[in-house]
Amino acid sequence: MSNKFLNRGISVFAIGCLLGLANCNSGSNESIPVETKADSAATNISVPTTTSIKPDSTTAPKKEVAKSSDRKSETKIVTIENMKFNPAIITVKKGDKITFINNDIVAHNATEKNNSWASPLLANGKSWTFSPEKNSDYYCTVHVVMKGKIIVE
Q: Fewest CB within 10 A of the end CB: N or C in the chain?
């Protein structure tokens, strides 16, 4: 009897943890489906798989001409996956842009540590682009262990 109670307690705890992660995705219509079987002490939890955004002619970052020189500006990509910014440290030239793409199952953002800039909350598959003007340390306000750095040359 006590093992059956313990198994159900662990299942309830696991569901609570996953629902807590789903709440990080506030503002999104996505959810984590939970299926339960009344005849079994085990609970099956189905978590959606992540899909990567593949650039095509409509979504690929465009290169633009910098206004102050003949050098063409570039758009660099930072992906958000597995609760990390990748790359965690990125070097760009003045006038370049950075696009953050969330490929994680929960929502994230990127916020400069002194709040001089911040992305909106990005659900899975969403992106945000900006032009950094100076070196910045940044983090995800939802998951503060996620940190990154931008170096502008």
A: N
